[in-house]
Automatic annotation (TrEMBL):
It comes from Novosphingobium silvae. GO terms for molecular function: catalytic activity; molybdenum ion binding; pyridoxal phosphate binding. Residues 30-167 form the MOSC domain. This is MOSC domain-containing protein. SUPFAM superfamilies: PK beta-barrel domain-like (SSF50800). InterPro entries: Benzoxazolinone_Detox_Enz, MoCF_Sase_C, Pyrv_Knase-like_insert_dom_sf.
Length: 217
């Protein structure tokens, strides 16, 4: 099991105008001061603008490794968003944990809450717009550094400085990086057997399970 690691920051945000009045977003999230309640649908006070593609029980909490910020500075250059936390709309910031070391179905004790990894993030155009036109979306897919989502198994609370520790790993062969590669980055073309085997990963969120079925054809 991984050693507990500190939570650098927790972020939340409300719905605001994004690319125009008809395209609101809650991607702009700011650090929480003090403890925050983690409920079934996410951090208390957090929001999602388009519930058809964001939020819900399987995408309640978004975790993005702060480890990747150095990569982004090298990839797109300096940007004000990379000077703090929450640049990619994440709710949780940590260092020392990336997509290669997290598996679908992992259960983590996050403060006093218990959360379970449900899927990787599927990046979209909003990241490019948030970073003033930089090609973040495509670069994130190529670099396979999307972050991941949790469902909340047990509600609780947490604050920056608390730790998160691995409680259970039922699918150790299915890292977020591997699943993202198969379903989003095109690895299924060379590894149909893995795509077929992925069907046994019962913790995978339903939209990604449907994507698997579509790719199987």
């Amino acid at each position: 099991m991984n050693s507990p690691l500190p939570i650098l920051s927790l972020q939340r945000g409300g719905i605001a105008v994004f690319r125009g009045p008809d395209e609101p977003s809650a991607i702009a999230k700011t650090p929480v001061e003090g403890r925050v309640r983690i409920r079934r649908l996410g951090l208390e006070g957090d929001a999602q603008a388009d519930l058809t593609v964001h939020g819900g029980p399987d995408k309640a909490v978004h975790h993005y490794p702060h480890d990747h910020y150095a990569f982004w500075r090298g990839s797109i250059g300096p940007h004000r968003l990379l000077d703090g936390f929450g640049a990619f709309g994440e709710n949780i910031s940590t260092s020392g944990l990336t997509e290669d070391g997290v598996c679908i179905g992992d259960r983590w004790r996050l403060g006093t809450a218990l959360v379970e990894v449900s899927q990787g993030r599927q990046p979209c155009w909003k990241l490019d717009h948030r970073f003033d036109g930089a090609k973040v979306n495509a670069a994130m897919i190529r670099a396979r550094c999307p972050g991941w989502y949790y469902r909340v198994v047990e509600e609780g609370d947490a604050k920056a400085g608390d730790t998160m520790g691995l409680v259970d790993r039922p699918f150790p062969d299915w890292s977020v990086a591997r699943v993202f590669g198969l379903l989003i980055a095109g690895d299924h073309r060379q590894d149909r057997a893995a795509l077929e085997a992925l069907g046994e990963v019962s913790a995978l969120a339903a939209p990604w399970m449907r994507r698997r079925e579509k790719l199987l054809g």
